[in-house]
Amino acid sequence: MEIIKGDLNFLLDTLEKQQAAVEEDQVEAQVKAILKEVQINGDEAVRRYTETFDKIKLTNFKLSEAEIETAYQNTAPNLLRALEAAKENIESFHLKQKQTGFIDAEKTGVIRGQLVLPIETVGIYVPGGTARYPSSVLMNAIPAKIAGVKRIVMVTPADPAGLPDSLLAAAKIAGVDEVYQIGGAQAIAALAYGTKSIPKVDKIVGPGNIYVATAKKILFGQVAIDMIAGPSEVVVLADEQANPAYIAADLLAQAEHDVLARAILISTSEKVAIEVDAALEQQLKTLPRAAIARQALANHGALIVVEDETTQFALMNEIAPEHLEIQLVDPMSHLNQVKHAGSVFLGAYASEPLGDYLAGPNHVLPTSGTARFFSPLGVEDFIKRTAFLSYTKEALAKEKDAVMDLAIEEGLDAHARAIQVRFEALD
């Protein structure tokens, strides 16, 4: 890979030109047609699109409890142990996010408060395509369970060879209530509108391809969503002490996801950048998904050398990466320089795959710079807050004039009268 140097503006311009060029208008038109068809024709449209895109004719969308149990029993013991270990860590982390309501009764005659209530029905989307992700089942479903969601509905693209046992085992372990073998924009439409066979949900979470992301974007308002997820990405910050082999391995861990993945090194050491480039070539020789990784690195990867740490963090914060690795001396001391990142991995031994699978923080993260305003998926994504208040007549009497003055200022006389009528007998 070419090593890139320059000032901050040049580097930002170079990275922007690397971004995937996608015919968004064309994709949106295709997705809108799919959504409309599913809204009108329901199961029939879902079945037809599944046959067209996934090359499988489905009699039933929903998998039975017996099928899920059989898959669980067929899953290798070591994988079951790994899934259970991941579940334990994901639960322990997300339990700390659980919120409670409050009651405020500080003023005489006034009670205010907030209820924290779970969303009742949630759909989780688990991607298919070139890889399957049982870890995504855990990351989506476990926070929902902790929040108290009553019905968790999982959708994932059908496969002519059948869904992997580990995927269904993860659904059982995570407490998913229903599994449907449908994917793509048609699955998002089915969850948003509901069909005869597939339940309508209140919120859809989980990453997917551009068609899934576009469907979620269009249907937002009809149904709640978590975020608009794009291709996976990592930025590694390194100094002269960093290990090039570790960095190369972590860059490839992202690049192997798909050809649109972004893997970027920002280093203050040109020597480290050169050694990382050599390590990438060496490790690619034995990587099963080398073709995907090579294309991702060629089109969306970068080895960047900057003059100082200030530029290093300024560039990273402008990128606002999904995953950020800080492989610098005393990495914890740099945490306060992070403004925009989905998840941060500190030090040489906090490799990003730990976050993907086992450590506990969620791996459903904002991408494509949206870490500036989106957060990782968490328990708070599966709750809603409802405020409540109670006033005695005496308490209202103290506030009535201020309420009426504000209502009249806004030209809303009925608002003012709704307060006034309660005191007309006294006046």
TrEMBL record:
Residues binding NAD(+), per UniProt = Y125, Q186, N209
For Zn(2+), which residues are the binding ones?
Q254, H257, D356, H415
Q: GO molecular function of the protein, one example? A: histidinol dehydrogenase activity
Please give the InterPro entries that the UniProt record associates with this protein.
Answer: Ald_DH/histidinol_DH (IPR016161), Histidinol_DH_CS (IPR001692), Histidinol_DH_monofunct (IPR022695), Hstdl_DH (IPR012131)
Which sites bind substrate?
Answer: S232, Q254, H257, H323, D356, E410, H415
PROSITE patterns tied to this protein: HISOL_DEHYDROGENASE (PS00611)
The active site lies at: E322, H323
The EC number(s) given in the record are 1.1.1.23
As to how many cofactors bind and how, the note says:
Binds 1 zinc ion per subunit.
Please give the superkingdom of this protein's source.
Answer: Bacteria
Q: Which reaction does it catalyse?
A: L-histidinol + 2 NAD(+) + H2O = L-histidine + 2 NADH + 3 H(+)
Q: Tell me the keywords, alphabetical order.
A: Amino-acid biosynthesis, Histidine biosynthesis, Metal-binding, NAD, Oxidoreductase, Zinc
- Sorted alphabetically, which SUPFAM superfamilies does this protein's record hold? ALDH-like
Q: Where are the transmembrane segments?
A: none
Family designation: Belongs to the histidinol dehydrogenase family.
> Briefly, what is this protein's role?
Catalyzes the sequential NAD-dependent oxidations of L-histidinol to L-histidinaldehyde and then to L-histidine.
Its name, as the record gives it, is Histidinol dehydrogenase
